[in-house]
Design goal:
Layout lengths: L6 H6 L8 H4 L5 H12 L2 E2 L11 H12 L12 H15 L9 E4 L1 H13 L5 E6 L5 H7 L3 E8 L9 E2 L1 H7 L4 E7 L11 H13 L3 E5 L25 E6 L12 E4 L2 H15 L4 H10 L4 H25 L2 E3 L6 E5 L8 H12 L1 E2 L1 E2 L13 E5 L4 H11 L1 H4 L1
Parallel strand pairs: 1-12, 3-4, 3-6, 6-7, 7-8
Antiparallel strand pairs: 2-9, 4-5, 8-9, 10-11, 11-14, 13-14
Helix pairs in contact: 4-11, 5-11, 6-7, 6-10, 12-14
The protein binds pyridoxal-5'-phosphate (PLP).
Pyridoxal-5'-phosphate binds next to helix 6.
Length: 406
């Protein structure tokens, strides 16, 4: 029989930290927390980027059919062949890239998993990852979880609200070094709506080549573009095909954020590593929804044209409403968010303003500081999502007018 430890020995045992140092280093997602607050206070949720309108009928039908046909067991860990073939065909059609569906694609549980699996697959402890800020908030914890050191570079807001957010080339070059493993790019960009121009991507490409760094590019808003903006994948630039991991997913293009289907496209060597990490993280994305993904990715061009048109109309609905309520708005060229400047309201910071909005005005937004490594950079900003029905946007506009009367 194993002797029981005495009560004295138990009391004197040194306490081990319950929580890992990594988990202590980041907070819960502010965006997802704002959704919970919206529910708590009965506020309209313009915080989290998920549509409140139905997904396309043909895609839902394809999912139902797949479940009916008993495609209900694990798919191949790196993705159902039908979906990988559809991804390769779409990459060829939209980006002109030849991609081998057998060796260069890993289907994951959303682009969220594709990003963390990619980072875990390529970084060693202490490697540096360049991240533009404001950034989609997952990238910060992603870097911590993969033991990488984030190096942030500011995207500066335009003085003229209709202008472009820009990075300073000297500031970007200054954070690249032999320790740089990769740069994370997100174009079209959340939260700024920036669509990176060819010259900017070429500058980034040159740095990647000079410092032997990878580009990990999140292109989840590739079809949501305005004012003639063009989406360019950095993988298509000379010298970048082999050093780019291109991440995308179904969530935004097909309005199915709850399905959790995304993917990473990369060279066979990189894909090999990403597939291994992915396998042990999640085994695979939902099998029937991958089949529906193959249907989704084969939609005609008119689907994407209509998607962009509908989002343009929503942008045109929310922009004037925000201005009327007293916000300075930065006009997005892509994605479905509007970053605003809240200086005119006289609140001490973005968090107290967002709290006021959700509790007293009845609209949930995201405080700007949650998109920055240095919270003070976002202290005068909040973000609104406009992936919502006209009714939702109009109700939000009505409520926001109360800000004028307050
Ligand atoms: C830039 C960006 N990447 C990734 C995601 C999440 O994508 P997924 O649903 O494919 O995990 C979001 C969601 O808001 C996003 O804005």
């Amino acid at each position: 029989m194993v002797p029981k430890p005495s009560a004295d020995r138990l009391a004197s045992a040194p306490a081990k930290p319950l929580i890992s140092e990594k988990a202590e280093r980041f907070t819960e997602s502010v965006i997802r927390d704002m959704t919970r607050q919206a529910q708590l206070y009965g506020a309209i949720n313009l915080a989290q980027g998920f549509p409140d309108f139905p997904a396309p009928a043909e895609i839902k039908r394809a999912a139902q059919q797949a479940i009916g046909a008993d495609i209900n067991q694990y798919a191949i860990t790196w993705g159902a062949r039908s979906l990988r073939q559809a991804i390769a065909a779409k990459m060829k059609k939209c980006r002109g890239l030849e991609v081998d569906p057998e060796a260069e694609i890993t289907v994951c549980c959303g682009s969220t998993e594709a990003m963390i699996a990619s980072l875990l697959a390529v970084t060693n402890a202490g490697d540096e990852i360049v991240i533009f800020e404001p950034f989609y908030e997952n990238y910060g914890p992603d870097a911590i979880l993969s033991d990488a050191r984030p190096r942030f570079v500011t995207l500066h807001p335009p003085a003229d609200p209709a202008g472009e957010w820009r990075f300073d080339e000297r500031e970007l070059r200054a954070v690249f070094s032999p320790r740089t493993k990769a740069i994370i790019l997100n174009t079209p960009n959340n939260p700024t709506g920036k669509v990176f121009a060819r010259t900017e991507l070429e500058f980034i490409r040159d740095l990647c080549l000079e410092f032997d760094a990878l580009a990990i590019t999140d292109e989840i808003y590739e079809h949501i573009l305005y004012d003639g903006a063009n989406h360019l994948s950095i993988a298509t630039l000379d010298g970048m095909r082999e050093r780019t991991i291109t991440i995308n997913g179904m969530s935004k293009t097909y309005s199915v954020t709850g399905w959790r289907v995304g993917w990473a496209v990369a060279s066979p060597a990189l894909t090999n590593a990403i597939r291994k990490v992915h396998d042990f993280l999640t085994v695979g994305a939902p099998a029937p929804l991958q089949e529906a993904g193959a249907t989704a990715l084969s939609m005609p061009d008119s689907y994407y044209e209509e998607l962009a048109r509908a989002y343009r109309a929503r942008r045109e609905r929310l922009l004037p409403a925000l201005r009327q309520a007293g916000f300075k708005t930065f006009v997005p060229r892509g994605a479905y968010y509007i970053m605003t400047d809240i200086s005119s309201f006289g609140f001490p910071d973005d968090v107290s303003f967002a709290q006021h909005l959700v509790k007293n005005i009845g609209v949930a937004s995201v405080p700007g500081s949650s998109f920055y490594s240095r919270p003070e950079l976002g202290a005068r900003q909040v973000r609104f999502a406009f992936c919502k029905t006209d009714t939702t946007l109009d109700q939000a506009a009505q409520r926001l007018l109360k800000l004028r009367k307050a």
